[in-house]
Design brief:
Elements (H helix, E strand, L loop, with lengths): L12 H16 L4 E4 L4 H14 L3 E7 L7 H11 L4 E5 L1 H8 L5 H24 L3 E3 L4 H8 L16 H5 L2 E3 L7 H10 L4 H4 L19 H17 L7 E6 L4 E5 L2 E14 L7 E2 L4 H14 L3 E6 L13
Parallel strand pairs: 1-2, 1-4, 2-3, 4-5, 8-10
Antiparallel strand pairs: 6-8, 7-8, 8-9
This protein binds xanthosine-5'-monophosphate.
Xanthosine-5'-monophosphate (XMP) binds next to helix 6.
C-alpha cells in the first residue's frame, strides 16, 4: 500500500491538526484508545492530537523498557503533566531484557522488541483499559526504510502486510504517517508543545538496544547509557540532527595501570540531516572530540577505545543496529 506524502511545503499545520483530530474522533467513536509516549517529537505530537480528540478517553503510557536514557521517564511525565496529560509509567524492564536475552542479530533484536511492545505490553494494556485502538507516531521515513528492507522499524505493520488486529488484537491509528520528521516538528510546534519537544533529537523505538552491537544485556545498556549522558552533554550546542554513542561488541587490547586491559570500544556518531533519509557526519572540532574521548575514558568503566564515525548515510545508516 502506497502512502501519499504531504511534503513540508504542502503541510498546513492547522488544517492537518483539525483533520487528524476529526479522523481520530470518528474512528474511536465513544470508545477508548491508548498510546505510548516516549517523549520523542512523534509520540508527543500524537499524544496531543489524541488528547485533543479524545480527552481523558486517551490513556497515555510511558513504557519503561529498561532501554531508555537516564531519567527519561520522570522528565517526560513531569513535562506532560504541565500540558494537562496524565502519563502512567509501566515497568516492563523484565519483559524486554528477557526477550533480548541471547540475541545478537540486529533484525532479530528489532523483532524481539516489536513483539514485546505490541504483543506483551500493549496487548495487556489494551485488555486492561478496554480499548480497541492504539494510537502511534509512525512517520513516512519509518515506512520507507522498512518496506525497502533496510531496517525493520519497530512500528510498521500494515505496509508489510501484517494486520495488527489479527496479530495483536487491536487496531493501530497512525496520524503522522504522511509526513516526515521536519513536518512532525512543525505540527508539534503548532500543538503548543515546547521547543525541548519539537526540537528534540530523534531517538529510535528500540532505544539504547539499537546502540549496543551484539547482545543487549542490562550491563551493556548501562554502559552505553553512561556514554550517552556524556555525548549528549558535550554535543548539546552542536547544531546537528542527531548524535549518539554506540557500544561495540569486539574488544581491543588496551593498557591500564601498566597492565594489559582487553577493553571496550565506544563509537560516537554525530549526523547532519534534514529528514533522516540521507546524512553526513558533522565536522566536529578536534577539541570537542578529545573532550568526548577524555570524559568517556574516565567515566565509562572498561572503555579503552573511542572513535568518531566519518561515513555518510548511505551506505551507513544512522543507528548501528
Ligand atoms: P537509520 O538508522 O535507519 O535511522 O538511518 C533513521 C532515523 O530513524 C531512527 N530510527 C528509528 N525510529 N523506530 C523509530 O521510531 C525505529 O525502529 C528506528 N530505527 C531508527 C533513527 O534514530 C534515525 O533518526
Amino acid at each position: 500500500m502506497k502512502t501519499n506524502e504531504i511534503t513540508l511545503q504542502e503541510l498546513n499545520t492547522n488544517q492537518f491538526i483539525e483533520k487528524k483530530v476529526k479522523e481520530i474522533s470518528s474512528l474511536v467513536g465513544n470508545g477508548i484508545a491508548i498510546n505510548a509516549l516516549s517523549g520523542g517529537v512523534d509520540s508527543a505530537a500524537v499524544t496531543m492530537l489524541g488528547h485533543k480528540a479524545l480527552g481523558k478517553r486517551l490513556k497515555t503510557y510511558f513504557i519503561e523498557n529498561g532501554l531508555m536514557r537516564k531519567d527519561e521517564p520522570q522528565q517526560i511525565v513531569k513535562l506532560f503533566k504541565k500540558h494537562g496529560v496524565e502519563v502512567i509509567i509501566i515497568d516492563a524492564k523484565e519483559k524486554f531484557f528477557s526477550a533480548l536475552k541471547g540475541i545478537t542479530d540486529p533484525e532479530q533484536k528489532r523483532e524481539a522488541i516489536t513483539q514485546t511492545f505490541y504483543k506483551n505490553v500493549f496487548g495487556e494494556l489494551v485488555k486492561e483499559s478496554g480499548s480497541k485502538y492504539l494510537l502511534q507516531g509512525t512517520i513516512l521515513t519509518d515506512v520507507d526504510e522498512t518496506v525497502a528492507g533496510i531496517k525493520r522499524q519497530h512500528n510498521v505493520f500494515e505496509q508489510l502486510g501484517i494486520d495488527p488486529q489479527e496479530m495483536f488484537g487491536y487496531k493501530i491509528i497512525e496520524p503522522l504517517v504522511q509526513i516526515r520528521k521536519d513536518g512532525v516538528r512543525k505540527v508539534a510546534k503548532a500543538l503548543d508543545l515546547p521547543p525541548s519537544i519539537y526540537n528534540r533529537m530523534p531517538f529510535p523505538g528500540p532505544a539504547l538496544s539499537a546502540r549496543v552491537i551484539g547482545e543487549a544485556t542490562p550491563e551493556k545498556i548501562e554502559l552505553v547509557r553512561q556514554a550517552t549522558v556524556i555525548t549528549e552533554e558535550i554535543l548539546a550546542d552542536v547544531a546537528a540532527f542527531q548524535y549518539m554513542a554506540i557500544l561495540h561488541n569486539d574488544r581491543v587490547t588496551g593498557m591500564r595501570n601498566g597492565k594489559r586491559d582487553f577493553g571496550l570500544q565506544i563509537e560516537i556518531r554525530c549526523w547532519n540531516s534534514i529528514d533522516a533519509r540521507t546524512a553526513t557526519p558533522t565536522n566536529l572540532s578536534y577539541e570537542t572530540l578529545m573532550e568526548l574521548s577524555r570524559l568517556i575514558l574516565e567515566n565509562v568503566p572498561g572503555v579503552v577505545s573511542v572513535t568518531y564515525n566519518i561515513a555518510t548515510k548511505p551506505p551507513s545508516t544512522m543507528e548501528a543496529i
